[in-house]
Predict the 3D structure of the following.
Amino acid sequence: MTNRGHKYPGLWINFEAGEGAGKTTHQRLLAKYLKKEGFLVNFGREPGTTLAGEQIRKVLQDPNLPKLNPGTEMLLYVGAGIEFFEQVLKPALERGGIYLTDRWRDSTKAYQGYGLGIELNLIDTLTKFSCGGTYPNITFLIDIDAELGLSKISGHKFAGNRVDKIEVRNLDYHRRVNEGYREIARQNPDRFKVIPYIDRNPDKMQEQIRKHTDEFISEHGLESRLARI
């Protein structure tokens, strides 16, 4: 039996990916599916969701704002995560609900660790500090080639139709990020489920995501224990 990842009665499912993989789409599709099954489901993005988190997200991503030192960037992601965990995620898990996150600290390790060269052990320490050692029950990594993923990004988020400060980084950076994700998944096989990206076939990918989620719920006897609508 795989580990539960935390002490709370709820179920935490996280989605990770490099750019352009469609993880947010799959987060929403899984939320819709689980709600139809009668579970109490909420979802959010990180950084973001809280008022402070959304402001931090803007500082981190808006290309019209100054570029940040890599260490500052990493610490802001961790800080936004503390607000998110304490205000939103932990209460949902304490209620026994299912919470689906669009990124967590695995993103920090991939993007700021493997991508920018921040010490990985430092990120691990700050991750544990930021959430009291709590980790997702399941992390779905949508594994996409960096070049293909970047080709699917269109500027629409900021003034001047510009992409964010992370997306605009060069291909070598994004290759390091994606390979970093693969290494994180190899090191955490109990928690990670790698979903190979299938171009123009999201239904096949979502089928794998739902199957693994259903199996986890059944394996841990959560059908009758998770909160219901």
User: Anything to note?
Assistant: The helical segments are 23-36, 51-61, 70-94, 105-114, 120-131, 146-151, 171-187, 202-219. The two ends are 27 Å apart (CA to CA). Residues 64 and 159 are 8 Å apart (CA to CA). The chain has a mean pLDDT of 95.
